[in-house]
Amino acid sequence: MGKKVLITGGTGLIGKRLTQLLLERGYEVAYLSRSKKSVPSVTVFQWDIDKNYIEEGALENTHFLVHLAGTGVAEKRWTDEQKKSIISSRVDTIKLVAEKLKEKNIRPAAFISASGSSYYGEDSGETRNTENSPPGNDFLSHVTIVWEKAADAVAELGVRTVKLRTGIILSDEGGALKQIAAPAKLGLGAPLGSGKQWLSWIHLDDICNMYIQAMENETWHGAYNAITGAVTNEDFTKLICKVLDKPQWAPHVPAFALKLAFGEMANVVLGSSYLINKRIKEETDFKYQYPDLKGSLEEILR
To answer: Parallel, antiparallel, or unpaired: how do β-strands 198-203 and 274-275 relate?
Structure first.
């Protein structure tokens, strides 16, 4: 068998595709999961955060550790309980892993953690955010700050650590594109709110290949804006309708209607997030498979 990659949150959107690509490259893949379910070609180990438990053998012989676990920020309304789950599922999980790595004196070659474009705030307006831009001060930026801080607990053990601040992932398997494209397929595509808010995007295969390069290339370290480009919500909607050969529904969906329907969670689609992948461009030799938004949408939606 090849080198072992242990993944938390392996059954999510990134995790499933990343697993396929890793297996194709000859890696051994294992998951940390709350349930002992069977996954083809993957060894599944159980963990229980509340009981401070990770199944024996999970961490042993791990060459790379990938942290993708986390409750979806757009799954439900942001009640106090849901907010607690969003944070705990990202932070407490990796804190437990760090604690067990230290206890067992296990040191993977690298630790790659998911992070979010919301590090810079739910709505950073027209600001072009590089990795050196300051963090925001709202709920989602707080989530990302404490998420990255938890990842630092692994870095402090002497493990090379990479954090990938990811925006909207383009895929037909799930995520924001599937939700935005659904009404467009019915001829009801419409910009959300003003439509002027920026979305930073990346194709699913590109973000998965980014994880693999971050694992394999020892020069990668610290935080990266893991995106391809940025587009306004209005232009994104227009392009989706064009690719689907569907008309765009004339009126915008008003912001107040989204806030009535989704509460505070509406900030996810109404906020503006323009990221610049400065470190990817200047410090790595990463090659995007899908550098063009129109081409990405055509590959996925057609």
So the answer is: unpaired
The number of angstroms, rounded, from the C-alpha of 137 to the middle of its chain's C-alpha atoms is 20
pTM metric for this prediction = 0.95
Is residue 32 within 8 A of residue 225, CB to CB? The reply is no
Burial of 246 (0-12, 13-18, 19+ CB in 10 A): middle
3-state secondary structure 104-135: HCCCCCEEEEEEEHHHHCCCCCCCEECCCCCC
Residue 251 counted as domain residue: no
Q: Which of 214, 189, 288, 272 is nearest to 296 (CA)?
A: 288
pLDDT recorded at residue 104 = 97
The DSSP letter of residue 267 is H
Does residue 59 form part of some domain? yes
pLDDT tens by residue, 68-90? 999 999 888 999 999 999 999 99
Q: What per-residue confidence (pLDDT) applies to 1?
A: 65
Distance in angstroms (rounded) separating the CA atoms of residues 214 and 227 = 14
Beta bridge partners of residue 111, listed in sequence order? 65, 161
Count how many domains the chain has: 1
Burial class, 285, CB count within 10 angstroms (exposed 0-12 / middle 13-18 / buried 19+) = exposed
The 4-8 sheet, strands edge to edge = 53-54, 42-48, 28-33, 4-8, 62-67, 110-116, 160-166, 222-226
Q: Provide the CATH number for the domain around residue 39.
A: 3.40.50.720
Q: Say if 242 falls within a structural domain.
A: no
Long-range contacts of 49-52 (CB under 8 A, 24+ apart): 49/88, 49/92, 49/93, 49/96, 52/96, 52/99
Cα Rg of the chain, angstroms: 19
Q: Give the CA distances from residue 209 to residues 32, 79, 202, 284, in Å, rounded to whole numbers and listed in that order.
A: 21, 35, 11, 13
Residue with tokens 């106090």: 80
Classify residue 188: in a domain, yes or no. Answer: yes
Which residues constitute the domain of residue 90? 4-236+260-301
